[in-house]
Amino acid sequence: MSSGPAIILVRPQLSENIGTAARAMLNNGLTDLRLVAPKPDWLSDRAIAAASGADRVVLGAKIFDTTAEAVADLNRVWATTARNRFMVKPVDTPRTAAAAMLDLTAQGVKFGVLFGPERTGLENDDIVQADTVVTVPLNPDYSSLNLAQCVLLIAYEWYQAQGPELPERHMTKGAADIATKEKLEGFFQHLERELDECGFLRIADKRPVMVRNIRNLFQRAHLTGQEVQTLHGIVHELVTYRHRKGQGTT
């Protein structure tokens, strides 16, 4: 993945929020963390604990006295805000911002995103450093986000804009775990035999369609060999239970 946007936390108030923001960054391949005027105890055990393995992002954070210094080497800057600041600036969503950032990456342009203090958000003097405002479209009656959530939304859209490979649709050990058609056919015959026996498939003219529907249902599941064996066991136990009931035993 390319380096992506610098994440700039302006006057963060709680060290654990720095840690959780770092965690959100690393989840999406971002490592350039910049802090503007953090509190003296920002690098505390709480920050490292909250980072939950993203220690290197926290420990590698760059410290600046002012927002202007933090963005000095960047060519483009976005500022996150949910409020109307009465400034004439373009407005992006996280998704449209990510698409614009991807275009800048191809041009070799450096860029970053500003995030304000947890209680108040960015001040207008911070936002004036930015080219574009980014606002998350949420429920207008309740659109409150904590710092890490906001960082995660921006970072996630950036990560997705690069088209990461999707994971396998099923979490199996490998193709060898998927049941063979022979094993599936054996299960289908077992199941259909018992369904005939109990009368479920008793309507002759509907039987072919019902059998196809049942088979298609299990085919869509991409069953593993172990799962087919489990299904055999389920059918067997149901039949055994029915026979015991028929004999009046418990």
From TrEMBL:
<dbReference type="GO" id="GO:0106339">
    <property type="term" value="F:tRNA (cytidine(32)-2'-O)-methyltransferase activity"/>
</dbReference>
<dbReference type="InterPro" id="IPR029026">
    <property type="entry name" value="tRNA_m1G_MTases_N"/>
</dbReference>
<dbReference type="GO" id="GO:0002128">
    <property type="term" value="P:tRNA nucleoside ribose methylation"/>
</dbReference>
<keyword id="KW-0949">S-adenosyl-L-methionine</keyword>
<feature type="domain" description="tRNA/rRNA methyltransferase SpoU type">
    <location>
        <begin position="6"/>
        <end position="156"/>
    </location>
</feature>
<keyword id="KW-0489">Methyltransferase</keyword>
<comment type="function">
    <text>Catalyzes the formation of 2'O-methylated cytidine (Cm32) or 2'O-methylated uridine (Um32) at position 32 in tRNA.</text>
</comment>
<dbReference type="InterPro" id="IPR029028">
    <property type="entry name" value="Alpha/beta_knot_MTases"/>
</dbReference>
<protein>
    <recommendedName>
        <fullName>tRNA (cytidine/uridine-2'-O-)-methyltransferase TrmJ</fullName>
        <ecNumber>2.1.1.200</ecNumber>
    </recommendedName>
</protein>
<dbReference type="GO" id="GO:0003723">
    <property type="term" value="F:RNA binding"/>
</dbReference>
<comment type="subunit">
    <text>Homodimer.</text>
</comment>
<keyword id="KW-0819">tRNA processing</keyword>
<comment type="similarity">
    <text>Belongs to the class IV-like SAM-binding methyltransferase superfamily. RNA methyltransferase TrmH family.</text>
</comment>
<dbReference type="GO" id="GO:0005829">
    <property type="term" value="C:cytosol"/>
</dbReference>
<dbReference type="InterPro" id="IPR004384">
    <property type="entry name" value="RNA_MeTrfase_TrmJ/LasT"/>
</dbReference>
<dbReference type="Pfam" id="PF00588">
    <property type="entry name" value="SpoU_methylase"/>
</dbReference>
<keyword id="KW-0963">Cytoplasm</keyword>
<keyword id="KW-0808">Transferase</keyword>
<dbReference type="InterPro" id="IPR001537">
    <property type="entry name" value="SpoU_MeTrfase"/>
</dbReference>
<dbReference type="GO" id="GO:0160206">
    <property type="term" value="F:tRNA (cytidine(32)/uridine(32)-2'-O)-methyltransferase activity"/>
</dbReference>
